[in-house]
Amino acid sequence: MKAIFALSVLFASASAIARPAPLVSIPTHDAFFGSLSALCGKAFQGTVVVDNQGPSKFDSAKLVMHVRRCNERELQIPFHVGDDASRTWIITKTGSGLSLKHDHRHQDGSDDVSTMYGGHTLDAGFNQVQSFPADQYSKELFARLGMAQSITNIWQMYVYDKTFSYRLIREGREFRVDFDLTQPVTPPTAPWGYQD
């Protein structure tokens, strides 16, 4: 009898482990994620509107974001800077909020030494605005690479009816690109390391 009970507990535990975790989220995160998901498949051109350490290559290059791949948990948004297709923003529902990662690749598809840095929401944010303070992985990466100034990075994304904005802030640093959502452009080719 004890053996049968032990087996039933074991099977119940195994089935609980095998089930995927429920997708837990809150309304503001869902609304933000949903607004970006609605843009899936489309690309938009942007302009640097704030760069207190410019000028840089971002000022002279064509800037295009492409909401390229979307599912209920993850959005992949390549950010093309001219011919440089090394950057992809990855927004993920984690069950405790939203995560933003920067996937940086070389032209051959291999990982850049500075890749998958980003942050995680710490609060509800707003339907249109979410903030991603640097996470522990990113802080350790920046420290290892001698980029201590980046440890306090906060990335922000804004999505409104006519504009999407990507913003980086920290003490003494602000950078923002606004993308015109009213004028879709031809989507670029796949970013480095990805396939169409």
TrEMBL record:
Residues 1-18 form the signal peptide. The keyword Signal applies. Keywords: Signal. This is Secreted protein. It comes from Pseudoalteromonas fenneropenaei.
